[in-house]
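Subject: sequence -> structure tokens, single chain

Hey, anyone have a minute? Need the predicted structure for the following. Not urgent.
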Amino acid sequence: MSKLARMAAVTAAAAVLTGGALATSASASSHPYSCSNQGGGANHTVNCSGLITVNNVLNGTTVDVHDVNVLNGTQINTLQNALANVSDNDVNLPVTVQIGHLQTAVINTYLKNFGITVLPANISVCAGSVCV
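Reply:
Had a minute. Here:
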């Protein structure tokens, strides 16, 4: 095996292990989120879908981040975990409060974890017919 092939194998294994560790905590959530990159360039969006709970009813929630930065797998996992943590902690708060907390989690995650500033105007969060 060439040096380059060994390096690629080690890098791939590290990525799988890191991603797997992060994904485990998201999958343990009762409100997991799934995020993915959509489109490219100026039209790029990170789209996430998951659940919030209002009066013990689970609602489909979408979070769209309109940003030109494509997130890598580790960043996607970090964002999914942040959204799941908010949803797990905000059970049965008013829907508008939960939506606001999800938007704040996106802003904080992008800034603190990715070093990217995203304005609230570039984040749309919807739970059913309630959107911010």
